[in-house]
Amino acid sequence: MLGFRGVCLTGIGLLCIISHVFGIWLDWLDPQSFRSAMSRLYSQFGRRIRLLSGAMLVAVAMCLLPVSSLAAGAADEAAQGGKGRFHYEYVVQDGDTLYLVAKKFGVSMERLKKWNRRVVGRKGKLKVGKTMKVYSNVPIRPKRTAFYVVKSGDSLYRIAKKLGCEIGELKKLNAIRNSVIQPRDRLVYLTDAPEKVSESVGYCFNGKLINGEKLPPGPGYTFGHRPNIYGTNETITLLLDSIARYRRKYPDGPIVVVGNLSQRGGGKLDPHKSHQSGRDVDLGYIHKKKFQPINHMMATNEQNMDVRKTWYLLETLLKTEKVEKMFIDYKIQELLYKHLKGRNYVERYLKKLLQYPRGKNADAIIEHEDGHHHHVHVRFVCPDKDKRCSN
């Protein structure tokens, strides 16, 4: 038996394990005093201490590390591509390779392997049916796997040009070593094209949506439990790309709150007048740090609005040149106007952009609409391919 002091020592070891596993430093325990106490206990109860497992002693040793060392280790891991706060999941399909999945999500093979050691076997082979995790702090638009059947007269150069990819990528995806291909060979390639092509039909206030794409969960934004988050393929892409740019600019900034888009098939969506054809989306304004965390839309004013971050998100959307209109409360337009004047934006551009200070009936991309003091309503133009869509 260890006796009372042995039990105490075991208890200290258990505390060390707990502190190490959960990443918690015992602030009440002075490291120097702890070392001295351990030394005295070891000199008196050396034989009994040997009964402790090697794992216990290793954990004790870990507790003696300064907290700054542990924090530095975590920072090093993050700098080397450590796990982010959000992860995408992908089920390995027959024929998948480490290179293919890495290219699909736009990450390095080294990171992908590090995150999925139990899925990646010897020589980088993947276990079919297993779920891989891809960590990211910004939204990712994964590419889709597609196949091309080689025709007579085809060459890798012609195929790569037709598919819009690099010859080197095509060779790696299909393990082609000498550039020799044969008719009827089935080549795998990656594409940005959706599996189901959407179509926006009619007007935003009297229309419908065919094959609407649902906004997926992702890092840097939230839509709560809203069910009406369907849009055209173009709307979803523009939204995710813009949020990703915002997150890269402000990695520790507030998340973007996403409101309604459209119903799965479009059509009337109460209480909105529009949102019928997959081209409209509501976004919450970005609020100052002291008002965070915010995961819902709230009334916005000069006291709580982070004008700089809000404008960066809006400008990112505008730079796509795919925005038809934005609807923003006139008082919030005033905050944006003053911010942009302070950054020396030219008056001619501000006149094209904002109604303020010319009045609510002035012609501009950003217009006043009642009820838009807690969110901005973004409307994208009709996709080029959607001939039945009307701006």
How would you describe this protein?
- With 391 residues, the chain is α+β, with helices and mostly antiparallel strands.
- It has four domains: 3-78, no CATH class; 86-136, LysM domain (Membrane-bound Lytic Murein Transglycosylase D, Chain A, Roll), CATH 3.10.350; 144-191, Membrane-bound Lytic Murein Transglycosylase D, Chain A (Roll), CATH 3.10.350; 199-380, 2-Layer Sandwich (Muramoyl-pentapeptide Carboxypeptidase, domain 2).
- It is built from twelve helices and 14 strands.
- A hairpin with a 2-residue loop joins strand 5 (199-203) and strand 6.
Structural class: alpha+beta
User: Quick one: how many beta strands?
Assistant: 14
Topology as H/E string?
HHHHEHHEEHHEEEEEEHEEHEHHEE
Please, how many domains?
Answer: 4
Share of helical residues: 25-40%
Q: Identify the CATH architecture of the largest domain.
A: 2-Layer Sandwich
Largest sheet: 4 strands, mixed
Proportion of strand residues = 15-25%
Give the overall shape.
globular
CATH topology of the largest domain: Muramoyl-pentapeptide Carboxypeptidase, domain 2
Q: Biggest sheet, strands in spatial order? A: 11-14-12-13
Unreliable parts? 16-37, 39-43, 47-84
Mean pLDDT reading: 84
Q: In angstroms, what separates the terminal alpha carbons?
A: 83 Å
Number of alpha- plus pi-helical segments: 12
Q: Please tell me how large the radius of gyration is.
A: 28 Å
Name of the CATH class of the largest domain:
Alpha Beta
